């Protein structure tokens, strides 16, 4: 434990910065097995009018706003428009009753919610005036928690899915032209780039987060299991720790930070510092190999029925298989 309750002195802050830099360098440069975690995400079904209800949209041509109105026995919830916590997503408006663009989806930036009304701010102006035409909302883009550095595997427990890594510059509309014309169980999961979710109006601008896109558009609250490479939060308080990181790896992080601090305080020769860093990173490489285990130590795992792997007696053993990056 440090002998201070908070980091405020210049030397303390410099040490903290060196530790965070070393942590990122060591843990992000390798895919450590102890940093491979698992989580679930629940998809949102498209929002349509319930049986006996109506759900319509009003908008003025040229205005980047719209109003969705619901009448009947069911009411809007805040989650119909925006998420919260780690449950964040992009909401899109589809004016299915429009005469000119019934299959054009409009991204919702933010909005307000009441029991019977959603006030939407759109990313683009409405191309024509809408007056009480049928409408729905859908959700096919999700922002993953800050702790997710990258997604390694995705599986759906009922059907196989394909995971693809996409270029960060590819927009949702480019990846899936007119995705809203098809709904159903997830088939393709695309991960890549950073995006921002739909938020409540007048809130602070959200921080970008790693995006996960789903095709086709979900028609039910499907649950996806995913495996990911964990990103540790920066150390800030005197009580912060690197959860799940083995002590010997933490020792390497401290050694690397100490080398940086030696250069900061002692104005050491740059060639000496470079040599020390190279030695430290070689040690990191060797330790990574030890944590990964040797191939000879890995045991072959058969199917549940005792048959050879990949040759089960029933085709159902392939359901929910993992498809994705290494």
Commentary on this structure:
The chain has 326 residues and is α+β, with helices and mostly antiparallel strands. The protein has 2 domains: 10-35 and 233-297, no CATH class; 44-221. Helices cover 21% and strands 30% of the residues. The chain contains 4 helices and 16 strands. It has helices at 10-29, 172-175, 247-266, 270-292, and strands spanning 36-42, 54-59, 65-71, 88-94, 105-113, 117-122, 130-134, 136-143, 148-156, 162-165, 183-184, 188-195, 199-200, 209-215, 217-218, 223-230. The strands form 3 sheets. Strands 2, 3, 4, 5, 6, 7, 8, 10, 12, 13 and 14 form an 11-stranded mixed beta sheet that branches. Helix 1 (10-29) packs across helix 3. The longest helix has 23 residues, at 270-292. The chain is elongated and about 75 Å long. The chain starts with 9 loop residues before the first helix and ends in a 34-residue tail after the last helix. Residues 294-326 have low confidence and may be disordered.
């Amino acid at each position: 434990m440090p002998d201070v309750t908070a980091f405020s002195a210049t030397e303390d802050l410099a040490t903290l910065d060196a530790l965070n830099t070393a942590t990122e360098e060591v843990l992000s440069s390798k895919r450590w097995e102890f940093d491979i975690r698992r989580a679930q995400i629940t998809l949102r079904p498209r929002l349509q009018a319930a049986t006996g209800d109506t759900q319509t949209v009003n908008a003025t041509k040229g205005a980047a706003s719209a109003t969705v109105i619901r009448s009947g026995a069911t009411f809007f919830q805040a989650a119909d428009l925006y998420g919260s916590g780690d449950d964040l997503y992009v909401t899109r408006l589809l004016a299915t009753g429009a005469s000119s663009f019934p299959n054009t989806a409009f991204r919702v930036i933010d909005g307000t919610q009441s029991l019977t009304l959603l006030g939407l701010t759109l990313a683009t102006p409405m191309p024509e005036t809408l007056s009480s035409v049928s409408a729905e909302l859908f959700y096919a883009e999700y922002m993953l928690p800050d702790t997710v550095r990258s997604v390694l595997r995705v599986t759906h427990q009922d059907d196989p899915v394909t995971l693809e890594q996409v270029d960060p510059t590819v927009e949702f509309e480019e990846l899936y032209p007119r995705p809203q014309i098809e709904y159903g169980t997830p088939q393709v999961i695309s991960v890549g780039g950073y995006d921002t979710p739909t938020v409540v109006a007048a809130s602070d601008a959200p921080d970008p987060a790693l995006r996960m896109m789903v095709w086709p558009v979900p028609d039910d609250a499907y649950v996806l299991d995913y495996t990911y490479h964990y990103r540790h939060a920066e150390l800030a308080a005197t009580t912060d720790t690197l959860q799940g990181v083995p002590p010997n790896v933490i020792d390497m992080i401290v050694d690397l930070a100490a080398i940086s601090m030696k250069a900061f305080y002692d104005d050491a020769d740059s060639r000496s510092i470079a040599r020390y860093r190279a030695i430290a990173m070689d040690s990191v490489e060797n330790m990574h190999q030890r944590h990964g285990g040797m191939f000879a130590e890995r045991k072959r795992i058969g199917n549940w029925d005792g048959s050879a792997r990949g040759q089960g007696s029933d085709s159902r053993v392939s359901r929910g298989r993992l498809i994705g990056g290494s």
